[in-house]
Structures are given as C-alpha cells and as structure tokens.
Amino acid sequence: MFKVILILFLMLNSFLWCDIILKLDDDKKDDFGDGNVTYPEHPMFTPGIFDITQFRIEDMGDYYNFIVRVRGKIDYVKFDEYEYRYDMPAEFIFPLVQIYIDTDHVQGSGIMETIMGVNATINEESAWEKAVVFTSMPKRFQLRMEQFQAPLLNRVDFPPKIYLSKNKKEISVRVSKEFLGEIQPDWGYTILMLGHDVASSVKKNVFTMEVKSTSSLFTFGGGHGALVNRYNSNIIDMIIPQFKSQKRILKNYSVEEKKLAEIGAVYPTNTKMKSTLVKGEVKQISSDKVVINLGAKQGVESGTKLIIDSKYIVEVDDVFPELCMAHFTNSDDADVIEQGMKVTIWKE
Length: 348
Known about the structure:
By secondary structure, the protein is mainly beta. The protein has 2 domains: 19-263, Immunoglobulin-like, CATH 2.60.40; 279-345, Rod shape-determining protein MreC, domain 1 (Thrombin, subunit H, Beta Barrel). The chain is built from 4 helices and 18 strands. A 6-stranded antiparallel barrel has the order 13-14-17-16-15-18. A 5-stranded antiparallel beta sheet has the order 1-2-3-9-8. The protein starts with a helix and ends with a strand.
C-alpha cells in the first residue's frame, strides 16, 4: 500500500512541477480574423471556441506539452447533429491549431509557405523549419498534405491525440523531442487558430473551414465573395507580436497583385534577426538534376541540402567553386522547378 501511495505521489509531483518553458498570452474577443469574420450559425459553434487566450509549452521530460487555452468551452462534436456524421472521426473538435516554428531566425532561411487552407504566407524573417498541427484526424491530414504539399511533410508533426482539459477550455498535444529537438529561447512561433472541416473537398485545402462572404451552418462569414474570396485569410485568431494589429496584418492581402496576407512569428525573447543567408538561384534543370550558382566559395559541399523557392529540397552531389549540381529529394519536384527560382542553404 505504501508503494502505491509513493508512486501516486511521485506522479502527481512530477505533473505539478512540470517546467513551463514558454507562455504567450493573447487578447480576448479577437476571434474575428481580419475584423469582419463571423462564426458559423450552428449552435455547436459556441462563442469563444476559436478565441486563443494563451499558449504554453511544458517540458514533460520525454516530450513537450503544447497547450492552447481558449475563451469558450470546447465540446466534442455530436455525431447526430453534424451533416457529415457518416465519416466522423472519434472525439472530433472544430478548432484547428497550426504552429509554425522558426528555429534559427535567419532571413531567407526556412519555409514561407503555410499548409493549404490557411490562405496566408509567413514573412521571410519568420520562415519556419518545424510545424505542429492540432488535428482530430492526423492520418487523414497527413494523406491530404502528401497529396498537395509532399515536400513539407517531414517538417510537420501530427500528434496522434488531442487532449481536452476538464474545464474544456484547453486543448493540448504531446510533441516528441526527437521531432522538435531541444527548444531554444530565441525560437519564434506563428500560432494560428482555424476552423476544422472534416469533409473539406475544396481543391488544395487541407481540411480547413473557409471564410465565405456570409456565414452558414458550417462556414464562417465576413469574407469577400466571388473571385476575391480566394484571397481571404481563413485565420480566425492568432497570437501577434507586441504593438501589432491582427486586423491590419490579415487585411494586408492584394487582389490586384494576387498576394496573400503576410503573417509573422512572435519571438518571446525579442532576439534580433541573424545575418542573411547567402542566396543563389536555379541556373539549369534536367529530369533528375539541377544546377545552382552556389558553390565551395559559399560553403556548399557534397551532401549539403538546399531549399528552392522556400519549399523544394535538393541535395548536392558535385561542387565547383561557384556552382553545384544537386538531385531532387522528391522526383516530382523536377516538374515544378523553374530557372531563376531563389535558393538558400537548408538548415536542419
């Protein structure tokens, strides 16, 4: 009996004394996207379930606990009330959280593209190396990303389960240290809240609920209609850098320039950006090789990985003083690479 009590005490003590290594607060009642977004009309979308109020990371020893607190109370979707109930996963929730992590804070290093459905890009300073997705259907999410964004797939973690707190105001996932590595104080975090659409059939949208011109039972309202709609951000809430405006950030898209809204990370320690990486460009392309004007003089060597257009990874085979030849890590990328695309050294 004593041994049982001791084990329970140690477990409780470990839980209570977990190391909180990051805590970011967010304004309440800003779950309106660019200022105009309205919730879907179905009563299951209770007020505040998309309103982030805090993000925390706890070091649990073997893994990190990523926790998002919201203003409202989140409930699992009731199968009998949802129009797509025939294909509902267990314990499905409407909030969809995506976290993009800049692990080096180097301009020009990392990925600026977001997962399809967000409808926004991440600025060059905050380009990311790792991402974590809170999704109720991780396997489906992975398959859809493999279909549309295969080059990014190994940079994204889909924890197998979302944990809902007793008060229903916090959702959390467990992120392995093997995937993320040791968290550093100068990392930046782009933290996004979106709506999760279990039956998304829109081309190049990974299960994200869209912002339409008017709300319906299962879509957000407040966006533009017709062709302009493709430039609406589908972000409902986000944690923004100090002294910035969420409305202004999410409205900075341009229909005329065909430009999506550009968002950025929060850097808890306010670290300065490091020196810009050496940049090159694609000079020639063949079916399985690409020639790039980066070479030994820029620190490139055999085995170096390069990233093209912030999304396509190639690995260097042959190096010359100012040129290199590299092969595609994904053979399908050869069809989309073009001369003149920008290239930087990829940081693992």
